[in-house]
Amino acid sequence: MIVILLLNILLTSILIYSNLIELERSIKTVISFTTSMVLYSVLYFLILVFNFKFNLTLIGLILVNSLIFLIYIKKKKIKFNLNLNVKKLDIFFLLVLFYSLYFFIQNSNKWGQWDAWAIWSLHAKFLFYTDNWQNLFTNRIAWTHPDYPLMLPSMIAMFWCAIGDTTFIIPFFIALLPYIGILILFYFSFKNPVISIVSIIIITLDFSFTNRAAAQYADILLAFFYLLSCILITKIIDEKNNKSNLYYLLGFISSSCLWIKNEGSVFFILICIFIVIKNFRNYNALLKFGIGALIITVVYISFKICYAPSNDLVSKQSGNTLSKIFDIKRYEMILNYFKKMILMKFQIIPILAFIFLLKWRKLSPSLLIIGLTLIIYFAVYIITPYDLQWHLETSLERLIDQIYPSLLFVFLNYFENDFKSPNIIQETTKVLD
Predict the structure, then answer these.
(1) What is the Cα–Cα distance from 5 to 11, expressed in whole angstroms?
(2) Measured at the alpha carbon of residue 196, what is the angle toward residues 340 and 11, in degrees to the nearest 5?
(3) Is the Cβ–Cβ distance between 399 and 226 less than 8 Å?
(4) What is the pTM of this model?
(5) pLDDT tens digits along 143-184
(6) In sequence order, which residues have a C-beta less than 8 Å from that of residue 329 and are 6 or more positions away?
(7) What is the Cα–Cα distance from 245 to 59, expressed in whole angstroms?
(8) DSSP string covering 104-127, please?
(9) Structural domain containing residue 64
(10) pLDDT tens per residue across span 290-342
(11) Count of domains in the chain?
């Protein structure tokens, strides 16, 4: 069944790819594969909900996908372009990918670190046993956060079912995908090769970030979707075309953050607000974004209403919430811990931020969304029912991980404007090639 599952994902990716006409080939490849994986994670959840037979569903899908694929081939809607146009710089990028893969493997544990086996893989094991999967949703095991969304556990359980065994290899590879995806997005999202090289070097040489990616948590997966959403926002703004079909993609990719972690709802809501403000009277763009976000949003809301128990940050609130809001010491503790964390493990952020402030001309929507996301994260710390010091120590680093690649992209994309001169780009490309 694993072969049938992989063929389904491949065919779905090709069909999605063939309908993406507004993006570069490499970005299209990443988005088509990502979209396919998200759809199949949702499909697996629906298989559980409606008690479908997993094997029969996959067989039915392979028949449908194959039929649609043959129709597209007959109508010549799918064109296979084998012109790879490999440059010397691409060889350098491949070497970086191999090095990143080696370092990722060297720093991986068999089942990841604490959250990996105590939350994400544990949830996947519940979903793997299809007759008892709803036993996950009880506060009797509140320590494993049964209210968390199910994209990552669904992906893991889906491949386990296809293989027929709960092997540690699956969560390892699924953790690897967003990390490699972030490198690919950085390399191919910039027009200037200097910026592309700088971006992948920053990520590759950030050994702490690689270690956290190898931990097999959901935060790097969420970081990947944050980054992809920011890239799509940038392309929509650069196009200056309110009729762009990229709104479909932005709706789907940004809403997928809902299905990964609870924090993703903050980012998605802020993007919704941005889209509404930007297209206040452009109902066509709003409709496209809404259609793109519809599937994941409906699945997420259904999951939260019908299955997920109450969130611990909400259910454990007491009568002293108001006093926490007016406690200045809590704000000071959060800011001091944040400053310490940034200076110790994310040193590149203040450096880029300082350069950005020196050259600042206007605030990009993506940077505003990321900043507001971080502020809302801080607001949750203010009213947390847990010990504040403990909560900061156990989660702040992972929250910064979520926005870290997007921040790098926004800053580097802004700096790229200084290299927009065609002569500069041509000369730089000649040197690197």
Answers:
(1) 10
(2) 105
(3) no
(4) 0.93
(5) 899 999 999 999 999 999 999 999 999 999 999 999 999 999
(6) none
(7) 31
(8) HHHT--TT-SHHIIIIIHHHHHHH
(9) 2-432
(10) 999 999 999 999 999 999 998 878 877 777 888 899 999 999 999 999 999 99
(11) 1
